[in-house]
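Pipeline run #58 for the internal structure catalog. This entry was flagged by the ingest filter as a single-chain record with no existing model, so it goes straight to prediction. Upstream metadata was stripped on purpose; only the residue string is passed forward. Reviewer on rotation: M.T. Logging verbosity set to normal.
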Amino acid sequence: GWVAFVRHAKNPELPVVLLEDLAALIGLAFALLGVGLSALTGDPVWDGIGTCAIGALLITVALVLVVETKSLLLGESAAPSQVAAIAAALRGGGIERVIHLRTMHLGPEELLVGAKIALAPGAHLRQVAAAIDAAEARVRAAVPTARVIYLEPDLDRTPYASGVTGPAVVPLSGAVRDYAWGSTTAVQRMLGRPVDGTRIAELWFGAHPDDPSYCPDHGTTLEAMVAADPVGMLGPATVQALGPRLPFLVKILAADAPLSIQVHPTREQAERGWAAEDAAGIALTAPQRNYRDRNHKPELLVALTEFDALCGFRPVALARQLLAALALPELDGLAGLLEGPAPLRMAFTYLLTAEDPGAVVDAVLAAAPRLGGEWAPAAAAVSHIGAHFPGDVGVVLSLLLNAVRLRPGEAIYLPAGNVHAYLRGTGVEIMANSDNVLRCALTAKHVDVAELLRITDFTELAEPRWAPGPRGFVVPVPDFRLRALDLDAGPDAERGDAGPDPELGDAGPHLVLCTAGTAEVARGSTSVTLAPGHAAFVPAGDAPFTVRGTGTGYLAATGLPPGH
């Protein structure tokens, strides 16, 4: 669209011409309207209003052009896909690794590339010159706009193995989030902190801009380290496929009270929604804003303790049986909708648009303790929700959803469109880096029913649990995967000492989280020992790393296929 063209065009003349011509046409319409209304009403104030509107329009266009062309005037870097292609082209032919890489546009079709490259010790001058010439040719073939290339040869002086373009292992400090639903004991005991009534809901490990992990050995955040060298920290394949940001965020999540019932969009829905809200002038921090970024937000949670959750719509036949077991006249309207067309959509809409759900909520809360047998999980969810959110329509909405009690080690996957809520328990969560949450119930925050109906997936979910495979918990998005580590079973390695593992080997970024016992993450001559509730980031590179110790942990990586 026009907005994307203006924001991403490399030639400043094109958006300037487009916006100037567009402003001229709109300005003529304003002038015609002002003059026409003045002639019709005999009131010259309309002519003045038209003139003011034209002035405001020109100022707006000027500001947009200043913002969007500033980076071009100062020298914009290459696109992430181009950076990744350049880094890949530089490697090989006598060049062991790329130490530093910087790019800058000199013009719309002219890119400057500057890199420090590590060559093998003992290389003769003729060999160095030949390696540089060959590298320049490969770069120009991969990215034709790279016309000015400066390569500085150097020796690899890093204390760890070659094939790693950043630090070997980076210890991380988790960022504490103290939401009101958090636990007063779980994370505190894991970290060895006093149990003093303080709530800790989440520990974040990653490069999320809202609360990136601090890297004490480097005096900065992981977000800053990745931004300074995305190819070195994430690897060219990850940058090319997923962009120059760490694509996943790992959390320890501990809930004493229910979180909101919510839905996340697909990436395409987020793109459209973000653009529409941006065009409407809704501030990113506005409470009515649905889309905080352009990304999707799939999630996977693995239980560390027994964990209660709502996950996806229960099959319609089972929902009917549950309502029949409750035998409440207040539920007759809902039950009738489940007998008709598009039953889940109609029932969901009915509840979210109910003007006064108090009577049916109270009736369900009173009847829930009578349920037993196969309906015991649903009854427990209703009672727990009602204790924290009396009168909330989420009490009744939970009847349409699968009530799940996970045992330690079991997982649920929450794709785009899945209606879900965490109710209580402690687990490890991994998700795509996004803040896009549309809430349905159990919240005092904004609820946009129309947008919820647009993005919700009304497909029945017969089995909400997500089983692991040989590569761990692999989900159908490339942003992440998660693998449980049983360190008591012996040394574990994401890539064997002989090189990339044919099944699990990839040169992308990894994050190791210790949840019990101790974990030692070793790569080359560098090792980091982790206590429970602590993590380490392992940058991209072919050099192997191992995880040894006792207890349990989790290994996070991208979900890109092996060899990508």
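catalog note: Residues 45-74 form the longest helix (30 residues).
catalog note: Residues 435 and 514 are 25 Å apart (CA to CA).
status: ready for reviewer M.T.
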